[in-house]
Structures are given as C-alpha cells and as structure tokens.
Amino acid sequence: MSFRLQVTDPVKDKISILQVDQTITVLDLKALIEVELQIAVARQQLIYGGRILNDNDTLSKYNMQNEDLVLVERKQKQQRTPLELEAIKFIKHFQQNPHSLEALRVKDPKLAESIQNKKLAGVMEFIQQQQQKKLQEQQEYIRKMQQLEQDPLNPENQKIIEEMINKKNIEENREYAEEYIPESFGTVTMLYIELSINRHPVQAFVDSGAQSTIMSKACAERCGIMRLVDTRFQGIAQGVGTQKIIGRIHVVEMQILDQFLPCSLTILDGDSIDFLFGLDMLKRYQCNINLKDNCLIFPNEKLSVQFLPEGQINKRISIQQEQEILKRQNSDSKIQEEQLITKSNNPQQQQQQQPQQQQQQQQQQQQQQPQQQQQQQQPYQQQQQQPSINSRYPEQSIQAIINIGATRAEAITVLDQTFGNVELAASIIMQQKYGFN
C-alpha cells in the first residue's frame, strides 16, 4: 500500500514529501532521503513517534499513516582517541618514507607488517608499550633524583646527578629528532650515475669528499685499460686504514650519455667500489650536484645525468660496508701518493734501499766477463727502440703529435693513453708543454 510520508531535516529546516510503500525497509527509506535531502545513509538516524527506526524493519511494523512525519537526525562522528590519532600519524609517516619502513622491517618485522597492512591495533599496542616504558623511566628518574638530592653535597651523588641529567638531555634530543627530522634515522641512498669507460658500462659513485677519482683494479681489468696504468705512481691511500695504489691512468675517455670526456684515474688494489667520481673531475667540469632535481649537471658541456634510484644500483656490498669503505678511503679527503719517479731519478737512494741479496748479485755481475755484459745491454736497447719500430698507429698521426713539440716516444705514449685519438692527444701535449687548456 502506497502513502505519502513527510521527512524533515531540523538542521536545514527543510521538509520533503516522499511517496513510499509499507513494504519497504527503513534502509530503503534512508536511500530515498539521501537523494532528496543530500544526507549520507551512514549519517542518518530516523525517529518516528519518539522511537529510533531499525534499518532492517519494514515501514508497516511502525504503522505509519498517510502524511505522518519522520525526523531525520545526523549521527555524530565518532571521536578518535589520542592513541588512535597517534597510531594513524605513525602509519602515515612510514607510508611516506619507504626507506624508514625497510629499516624498521629489519629491526621489528611485526610492527612493520602492522604498518604496511594499516593494522591500528598492532600499532596502538606498540605506542602504548612505548608510552608505558617512558612513564616508568620518568618515575625511576624522579625516584633516583629524590634519593640523591637527600645528600646533594656528596661528590659521588653530584657525579651521578650530572650523568643522569646528561642522559635525559640526550634522550630529549633524540625524541625531538624523531618527531621533526625522522629521515635522519633512515639510510640515505648514495649518488650513482651511469657512464661508460672504453665502451664498458660502469656505475660511478659521485663523492665530492674524495680528493681523486678512483677506479678499482677489478673494474679497470673489466674495462681493458690496465695496460695504461703508470706504475711509477704507486703509493698508499691513507684514511681510516690504508689501501695500496697500483698506479695512475693519466687520461681515459669517459662517455656520459652522448658525450665523451677525458678523465684521469687513480687505480686502487681491490674490488670494493668500481668507480668513485671524485672532486678532481667534479671541479674539472665544474659539476653541480643538484639534489632538488636529483641529477649531476655538467654546465660547460650542457649535460645533465640523473642519479640512479636505489633499485637500479648494482649492490655487491651492503650499505654499512660501503660507508666503511668510504671512511677508509676518504676520511681526510686526501690520497697520499708515494711517487716513485723521484726514486728512479735518485740512483743513490735506490742503491741504499736495495736488500743485501741484491747487492751480492751486483758484485757477482761485476765479476762476469765484458762479453756477457754486452749481451745483457743489447736486449735492453732493442726494448727501448721497440715502441717506435712496432708502433700500431699511422705514421701521419705520430708525426702530427711530433709537429707540436713532442718526441716520438711521447707521441706514441700519449696516443696509447687516448686510444689513438689524435685531437685529444694533441691537447694533452699542448697542456703539458705550453700550459694550454
């Protein structure tokens, strides 16, 4: 049976008339009211004859008559407790900081799972435990302070009071950091870029705190450039600990995106970090480390290369090991190279450093016949002449370098260093001979 029903919204002082049937449920009536009065079903509370209507009941149960009045009240929003609000804030923070969530997963997997699945109960339990623990610590602190202040002139008590105050200040400082700069407790992704050395892809770690650009021996072998290492520049890299310097590659071609740039490398023994793009090359190309746009900018070359996201970095070592290596290599931002060139130019110093066994061998060689000495000198002379005889570069390229002031041996050496690039070799000679850039 159909009849007319008046529904009123006391908040907006509005009355609407609905044509309804006795067989519909209260929930169906609420749906009609939502369309008519724009009040969400979940917020409606219908009152008829002083009674609150049940959603599952039909209208016939309440004996409603034509033109009867139904009052539509709004349900009050449920107030969340401070603990619930704190848990929601806690979950939101970790959702916005996935790196912090991953670090928490290692420390407390259960809590990390509750945060990931938005389980308020689990997070509230953790926060409550922390609050109780903090309350107990405060009570214990007050109890100890009261006990110590009974004899404040005792030197031992004064020392303990000072330690307790310092610990409290440190804890307050940590809590402040957790609230206002929580990212400081996470792990920062290091800055890596992709480049190529001798057509071999390499991920370079950008470190403005390293004085020199460094490549590991293992990476140099993969790139096929170990033959260019000048072992006269052997030495020791000193930081927190030491690491052997095998030598130096004076120039090698480095490709970043579509541009080729010359680069000087110090080769370290080991395979901890493949390539460390240091301050020398950053200053050489006046690079800008743009953390806002997450890129490394080469302004003179009009080149910008994005830093790699953490997921694309080839991790052969853990973050903790990486940081330890950087401390060892760059703690003082300095590499001390023991250049052996000065030693080779000082025969007297070399002779003083020779072991006793080598001196005995020299005495035996002096007693040998002159004919044997002559036989030993001939291969050495041939070895000195061999680069010019068996040069694998066109005579025209060698002559072009000689024409700007280099010797034939220097021309071949610099062509070796630049993989036969005549223009790059010429610029190196010009810089060495005349100081031109």
From TrEMBL:
<dbReference type="InterPro" id="IPR033882">
    <property type="entry name" value="DDI1_N"/>
</dbReference>
<feature type="region of interest" description="Disordered">
    <location>
        <begin position="344"/>
        <end position="392"/>
    </location>
</feature>
<keyword id="KW-0645">Protease</keyword>
<feature type="compositionally biased region" description="Low complexity">
    <location>
        <begin position="347"/>
        <end position="387"/>
    </location>
</feature>
<dbReference type="InterPro" id="IPR015940">
    <property type="entry name" value="UBA"/>
</dbReference>
<comment type="similarity">
    <text>Belongs to the DDI1 family.</text>
</comment>
<dbReference type="InterPro" id="IPR000626">
    <property type="entry name" value="Ubiquitin-like_dom"/>
</dbReference>
<dbReference type="InterPro" id="IPR019103">
    <property type="entry name" value="Peptidase_aspartic_DDI1-type"/>
</dbReference>
<keyword id="KW-0378">Hydrolase</keyword>
<dbReference type="Pfam" id="PF09668">
    <property type="entry name" value="Asp_protease"/>
</dbReference>
<feature type="domain" description="Peptidase A2">
    <location>
        <begin position="202"/>
        <end position="281"/>
    </location>
</feature>
<feature type="domain" description="Ubiquitin-like">
    <location>
        <begin position="1"/>
        <end position="79"/>
    </location>
</feature>
<dbReference type="GO" id="GO:0004190">
    <property type="term" value="F:aspartic-type endopeptidase activity"/>
</dbReference>
<feature type="domain" description="UBA">
    <location>
        <begin position="392"/>
        <end position="432"/>
    </location>
</feature>
<keyword id="KW-0064">Aspartyl protease</keyword>
<dbReference type="Pfam" id="PF00240">
    <property type="entry name" value="ubiquitin"/>
</dbReference>
<dbReference type="GO" id="GO:0006508">
    <property type="term" value="P:proteolysis"/>
</dbReference>
<protein>
    <recommendedName>
        <fullName>DNA damage-inducible protein 1</fullName>
    </recommendedName>
</protein>
<dbReference type="InterPro" id="IPR001995">
    <property type="entry name" value="Peptidase_A2_cat"/>
</dbReference>
